[in-house]
Amino acid sequence: MVNPTPLHPRQTKRPAAHADVSTIPRVLSVSRPGRCAAAAGAGIFDQVDETDPFLSIDIFRRHGACIPAHPHAGCVVATYLFPEATTALRCRHAHGGDDVLHPGDLLWLDTNCGTVHEEVPDDARATVRGVRMIVNRAGRHAHGAPAQSVVRTEAMRRWREGDVDLTLICGQWDEREVARTEGERTTLLQLDWHDDALRTLTIPCDGRRWLALIAQGEAALAGHALRAEGGGAEAVWLPPGEWQLAGRTGARLVVAGGDPLGEPVVYRGNFAARDESDLVALTRRYQQGAMGTLPPVEDPH
Protein backbone atom coordinates (compact mmCIF):
# COMPACT_ATOMS: atom_id res chain seq x y z
CA MET A 1 0.00 0.00 0.00
CA VAL A 2 1.18 3.53 -0.71
CA ASN A 3 -0.05 4.85 2.66
CA PRO A 4 -0.19 1.91 5.03
CA THR A 5 -2.19 2.24 8.22
CA PRO A 6 0.11 3.42 11.01
CA LEU A 7 0.62 0.89 13.77
CA HIS A 8 1.08 3.63 16.37
CA PRO A 9 -2.15 5.64 16.09
CA ARG A 10 -2.81 8.45 18.54
CA GLN A 11 -4.43 7.11 21.68
CA THR A 12 -8.04 8.23 21.98
CA LYS A 13 -10.72 7.31 24.45
CA ARG A 14 -14.37 8.17 24.87
CA PRO A 15 -15.19 6.88 28.36
CA ALA A 16 -18.30 4.78 28.66
CA ALA A 17 -20.95 5.83 31.13
CA HIS A 18 -19.82 5.39 34.75
CA ALA A 19 -16.34 4.33 33.63
CA ASP A 20 -13.34 5.42 35.68
CA VAL A 21 -11.80 8.00 33.36
CA SER A 22 -8.42 7.60 35.06
CA THR A 23 -8.26 3.95 34.07
CA ILE A 24 -6.18 3.23 30.99
CA PRO A 25 -5.29 -0.03 29.18
CA ARG A 26 -2.35 -1.91 30.66
CA VAL A 27 0.04 -4.38 29.10
CA LEU A 28 -0.14 -7.89 30.59
CA SER A 29 2.93 -10.09 30.64
CA VAL A 30 2.80 -13.10 28.33
CA SER A 31 4.76 -16.26 29.01
CA ARG A 32 5.53 -19.51 27.24
CA PRO A 33 5.35 -22.16 29.94
CA GLY A 34 6.57 -24.98 27.71
CA ARG A 35 4.21 -27.54 29.19
CA CYS A 36 5.24 -30.01 26.51
CA ALA A 37 7.10 -29.77 23.23
CA ALA A 38 4.03 -30.75 21.24
CA ALA A 39 1.74 -28.10 22.73
CA ALA A 40 3.76 -24.90 22.54
CA GLY A 41 2.05 -21.59 22.92
CA ALA A 42 1.98 -18.19 24.57
CA GLY A 43 -0.51 -16.77 26.98
CA ILE A 44 -1.53 -15.00 30.17
CA PHE A 45 -0.96 -17.10 33.29
CA ASP A 46 -0.98 -16.52 37.06
CA GLN A 47 -2.32 -12.95 36.92
CA VAL A 48 -5.80 -13.52 38.33
CA ASP A 49 -5.89 -10.15 40.11
CA GLU A 50 -5.83 -8.54 36.66
CA THR A 51 -7.67 -11.20 34.67
CA ASP A 52 -10.47 -12.42 37.00
CA PRO A 53 -12.50 -14.51 36.08
CA PHE A 54 -9.88 -15.89 33.68
CA LEU A 55 -7.26 -18.08 35.32
CA SER A 56 -5.39 -18.27 32.02
CA ILE A 57 -5.82 -17.56 28.32
CA ASP A 58 -3.33 -18.81 25.76
CA ILE A 59 -2.81 -19.24 22.04
CA PHE A 60 -1.74 -22.85 21.63
CA ARG A 61 -0.07 -24.64 18.76
CA ARG A 62 0.19 -28.42 18.55
CA HIS A 63 1.76 -30.63 15.94
CA GLY A 64 0.73 -34.26 16.22
CA ALA A 65 -0.09 -33.74 19.88
CA CYS A 66 -2.35 -35.93 21.94
CA ILE A 67 -3.00 -34.27 25.28
CA PRO A 68 -3.16 -37.30 27.56
CA ALA A 69 -5.78 -37.82 30.24
CA HIS A 70 -5.49 -35.28 33.08
CA PRO A 71 -7.85 -33.81 35.70
CA HIS A 72 -9.59 -30.43 36.07
CA ALA A 73 -11.94 -29.17 38.77
CA GLY A 74 -13.58 -25.92 39.81
CA CYS A 75 -13.23 -24.26 36.41
CA VAL A 76 -14.43 -24.11 32.83
CA VAL A 77 -12.02 -25.30 30.13
CA ALA A 78 -12.95 -23.65 26.83
CA THR A 79 -11.05 -24.74 23.70
CA TYR A 80 -11.49 -22.97 20.35
CA LEU A 81 -9.85 -24.23 17.15
CA PHE A 82 -8.94 -21.65 14.54
CA PRO A 83 -10.82 -22.29 11.26
CA GLU A 84 -7.61 -23.06 9.33
CA ALA A 85 -6.75 -26.01 11.58
CA THR A 86 -6.16 -29.13 9.48
CA THR A 87 -7.47 -31.76 11.86
CA ALA A 88 -10.22 -32.31 14.42
CA LEU A 89 -9.85 -33.18 18.10
CA ARG A 90 -11.76 -35.91 19.87
CA CYS A 91 -12.52 -34.57 23.35
CA ARG A 92 -13.58 -37.01 26.07
CA HIS A 93 -14.11 -36.75 29.78
CA ALA A 94 -14.59 -39.48 32.38
CA HIS A 95 -18.24 -38.70 33.08
CA GLY A 96 -19.53 -39.50 29.61
CA GLY A 97 -18.54 -36.53 27.46
CA ASP A 98 -17.36 -37.50 23.98
CA ASP A 99 -17.38 -34.89 21.21
CA VAL A 100 -15.39 -34.22 18.05
CA LEU A 101 -14.15 -30.63 17.83
CA HIS A 102 -13.81 -29.57 14.19
CA PRO A 103 -11.87 -26.53 12.92
CA GLY A 104 -13.81 -23.39 13.86
CA ASP A 105 -15.65 -25.07 16.78
CA LEU A 106 -15.56 -24.26 20.50
CA LEU A 107 -15.61 -26.90 23.24
CA TRP A 108 -16.99 -25.76 26.61
CA LEU A 109 -16.20 -28.14 29.50
CA ASP A 110 -17.74 -27.28 32.89
CA THR A 111 -15.55 -29.41 35.14
CA ASN A 112 -17.56 -28.59 38.29
CA CYS A 113 -16.60 -31.11 41.04
CA GLY A 114 -13.89 -32.60 38.84
CA THR A 115 -13.25 -34.91 35.91
CA VAL A 116 -10.46 -36.41 33.85
CA HIS A 117 -10.35 -35.48 30.17
CA GLU A 118 -8.19 -35.84 27.07
CA GLU A 119 -7.90 -34.45 23.54
CA VAL A 120 -6.81 -36.70 20.67
CA PRO A 121 -6.26 -35.40 17.10
CA ASP A 122 -7.71 -37.27 14.13
CA ASP A 123 -4.44 -36.79 12.25
CA ALA A 124 -1.25 -37.10 14.29
CA ARG A 125 0.73 -35.37 11.51
CA ALA A 126 -1.42 -32.24 11.40
CA THR A 127 -0.99 -28.91 13.17
CA VAL A 128 -3.69 -27.44 15.37
CA ARG A 129 -3.84 -23.82 16.58
CA GLY A 130 -6.43 -22.19 18.74
CA VAL A 131 -7.35 -20.46 21.99
CA ARG A 132 -7.62 -22.04 25.42
CA MET A 133 -9.45 -20.23 28.23
CA ILE A 134 -9.59 -21.45 31.84
CA VAL A 135 -12.46 -19.65 33.60
CA ASN A 136 -12.73 -19.60 37.38
CA ARG A 137 -15.71 -21.38 38.97
CA ALA A 138 -14.07 -22.23 42.31
CA GLY A 139 -16.67 -23.18 44.90
CA ARG A 140 -19.56 -22.43 42.53
CA HIS A 141 -20.52 -25.98 41.60
CA ALA A 142 -18.84 -28.10 44.23
CA HIS A 143 -21.34 -30.95 43.81
CA GLY A 144 -22.30 -30.46 40.17
CA ALA A 145 -21.60 -33.14 37.62
CA PRO A 146 -19.10 -32.33 34.85
CA ALA A 147 -20.71 -31.42 31.52
CA GLN A 148 -19.41 -30.43 28.11
CA SER A 149 -21.01 -28.91 25.03
CA VAL A 150 -19.84 -27.71 21.63
CA VAL A 151 -20.59 -24.44 19.86
CA ARG A 152 -20.36 -25.32 16.18
CA THR A 153 -18.81 -22.86 13.77
CA GLU A 154 -22.08 -22.43 11.87
CA ALA A 155 -23.78 -21.19 15.07
CA MET A 156 -21.29 -18.33 15.55
CA ARG A 157 -22.07 -14.77 14.48
CA ARG A 158 -19.97 -13.25 11.69
CA TRP A 159 -19.91 -9.78 10.16
CA ARG A 160 -17.52 -7.41 8.44
CA GLU A 161 -16.53 -3.85 9.32
CA GLY A 162 -14.42 -2.35 6.54
CA ASP A 163 -11.40 -4.59 6.02
CA VAL A 164 -11.87 -6.47 9.29
CA ASP A 165 -13.84 -9.71 9.71
CA LEU A 166 -15.33 -10.28 13.16
CA THR A 167 -16.45 -13.62 14.61
CA LEU A 168 -18.39 -13.84 17.86
CA ILE A 169 -17.38 -17.29 19.07
CA CYS A 170 -19.41 -17.23 22.27
CA GLY A 171 -21.07 -14.75 24.61
CA GLN A 172 -22.37 -11.25 23.91
CA TRP A 173 -21.06 -8.34 21.86
CA ASP A 174 -23.21 -5.29 21.15
CA GLU A 175 -26.62 -6.67 20.17
CA ARG A 176 -25.19 -9.97 19.00
CA GLU A 177 -25.20 -13.11 21.08
CA VAL A 178 -24.03 -16.70 20.81
CA ALA A 179 -25.65 -18.25 23.85
CA ARG A 180 -24.19 -21.41 25.32
CA THR A 181 -26.27 -21.45 28.50
CA GLU A 182 -28.72 -18.92 29.90
CA GLY A 183 -26.98 -16.13 31.79
CA GLU A 184 -23.48 -17.12 30.61
CA ARG A 185 -21.76 -13.90 29.50
CA THR A 186 -18.20 -15.15 28.99
CA THR A 187 -17.29 -13.79 25.56
CA LEU A 188 -14.68 -14.61 22.95
CA LEU A 189 -14.41 -12.37 19.88
CA GLN A 190 -12.01 -12.82 16.95
CA LEU A 191 -10.89 -10.03 14.60
CA ASP A 192 -9.13 -10.80 11.28
CA TRP A 193 -7.61 -8.11 9.03
CA HIS A 194 -7.81 -8.52 5.23
CA ASP A 195 -5.88 -5.31 4.64
CA ASP A 196 -4.14 -2.64 6.70
CA ALA A 197 -7.01 -0.95 8.51
CA LEU A 198 -7.78 1.45 11.33
CA ARG A 199 -10.98 1.26 13.40
CA THR A 200 -12.27 1.74 16.91
CA LEU A 201 -12.99 -0.91 19.50
CA THR A 202 -15.69 -0.05 22.02
CA ILE A 203 -15.44 -1.93 25.30
CA PRO A 204 -18.83 -1.99 27.04
CA CYS A 205 -19.32 -0.73 30.58
CA ASP A 206 -21.38 -3.69 31.77
CA GLY A 207 -19.31 -5.09 34.62
CA ARG A 208 -17.28 -7.51 32.53
CA ARG A 209 -13.48 -7.54 32.48
CA TRP A 210 -11.83 -7.52 29.05
CA LEU A 211 -8.49 -8.78 27.71
CA ALA A 212 -7.03 -8.65 24.21
CA LEU A 213 -4.38 -11.08 22.97
CA ILE A 214 -2.61 -11.00 19.60
CA ALA A 215 -2.78 -14.38 17.85
CA GLN A 216 -0.85 -13.61 14.67
CA GLY A 217 0.69 -10.69 12.82
CA GLU A 218 0.88 -7.10 14.05
CA ALA A 219 -1.66 -4.71 15.50
CA ALA A 220 -1.78 -1.67 17.80
CA LEU A 221 -4.41 -1.10 20.45
CA ALA A 222 -4.79 2.05 22.55
CA GLY A 223 -1.23 3.07 21.74
CA HIS A 224 0.32 -0.33 22.50
CA ALA A 225 2.06 -2.20 19.67
CA LEU A 226 1.10 -5.88 19.65
CA ARG A 227 3.23 -8.47 17.85
CA ALA A 228 2.64 -12.20 17.93
CA GLU A 229 6.26 -13.08 17.26
CA GLY A 230 8.05 -10.96 19.82
CA GLY A 231 9.36 -7.42 19.64
CA GLY A 232 6.38 -5.90 21.41
CA ALA A 233 3.52 -6.42 23.79
CA GLU A 234 1.19 -9.36 23.19
CA ALA A 235 -1.71 -8.83 25.61
CA VAL A 236 -3.59 -5.81 26.97
CA TRP A 237 -6.13 -5.33 29.77
CA LEU A 238 -8.96 -3.10 28.51
CA PRO A 239 -11.23 -0.88 30.61
CA PRO A 240 -14.60 0.35 29.28
CA GLY A 241 -14.37 3.01 26.59
CA GLU A 242 -13.66 3.56 22.91
CA TRP A 243 -10.13 2.67 21.86
CA GLN A 244 -8.28 3.09 18.60
CA LEU A 245 -7.23 -0.16 16.93
CA ALA A 246 -5.01 -0.72 13.90
CA GLY A 247 -3.93 -3.92 12.22
CA ARG A 248 -1.69 -5.12 9.41
CA THR A 249 -2.89 -7.45 6.69
CA GLY A 250 -3.23 -10.96 8.10
CA ALA A 251 -3.31 -9.88 11.74
CA ARG A 252 -5.59 -11.71 14.17
CA LEU A 253 -6.66 -10.42 17.57
CA VAL A 254 -8.83 -12.23 20.12
CA VAL A 255 -10.80 -10.33 22.76
CA ALA A 256 -12.15 -12.10 25.86
CA GLY A 257 -14.57 -10.76 28.45
CA GLY A 258 -16.10 -12.21 31.59
CA ASP A 259 -17.78 -11.31 34.87
CA PRO A 260 -15.16 -11.09 37.63
CA LEU A 261 -15.92 -13.08 40.76
CA GLY A 262 -13.92 -10.87 43.09
CA GLU A 263 -13.17 -13.81 45.37
CA PRO A 264 -9.99 -15.54 46.55
CA VAL A 265 -8.90 -18.44 44.38
CA VAL A 266 -6.06 -20.95 44.47
CA TYR A 267 -5.32 -22.47 41.05
CA ARG A 268 -2.81 -25.28 41.10
CA GLY A 269 -2.52 -28.64 39.42
CA ASN A 270 -5.49 -27.77 37.13
CA PHE A 271 -7.73 -27.37 40.21
CA ALA A 272 -9.41 -24.05 41.03
CA ALA A 273 -10.18 -23.92 44.76
CA ARG A 274 -11.44 -21.32 47.24
CA ASP A 275 -8.51 -21.90 49.60
CA GLU A 276 -5.76 -24.37 50.46
CA SER A 277 -8.09 -26.73 52.35
CA ASP A 278 -10.45 -26.83 49.38
CA LEU A 279 -7.48 -27.58 47.13
CA VAL A 280 -6.42 -30.45 49.39
CA ALA A 281 -9.97 -31.85 49.21
CA LEU A 282 -10.00 -31.71 45.41
CA THR A 283 -6.58 -33.35 45.21
CA ARG A 284 -7.75 -36.12 47.53
CA ARG A 285 -10.87 -36.70 45.41
CA TYR A 286 -8.69 -37.13 42.34
CA GLN A 287 -6.25 -39.46 44.09
CA GLN A 288 -9.13 -41.60 45.34
CA GLY A 289 -10.52 -41.94 41.81
CA ALA A 290 -13.65 -39.85 42.40
CA MET A 291 -12.93 -37.80 39.24
CA GLY A 292 -13.12 -40.96 37.16
CA THR A 293 -10.88 -42.63 34.64
CA LEU A 294 -10.88 -42.80 30.87
CA PRO A 295 -10.78 -46.17 29.11
CA PRO A 296 -8.47 -46.41 26.09
CA VAL A 297 -9.96 -45.41 22.76
CA GLU A 298 -10.78 -48.48 20.72
CA ASP A 299 -8.85 -48.82 17.49
CA PRO A 300 -11.42 -48.95 14.65
CA HIS A 301 -9.00 -51.07 12.65
Automatic annotation (TrEMBL):
Domain of life assignment: Bacteria
Domain Pirin N-terminal residues, every copy: 50-132
Coiled-coil annotated residue ranges, if any: none
Domain Pirin C-terminal: residue ranges: 198-291
Gene3D superfamilies cross-referenced by the UniProt entry: Jelly Rolls (2.60.120.10)
Region (Disordered): 1-20
SUPFAM superfamilies, per the entry: RmlC-like cupins
Similarity annotation: Belongs to the pirin family.
Protein name: Pirin-like protein
Organism this protein belongs to: Pandoraea fibrosis
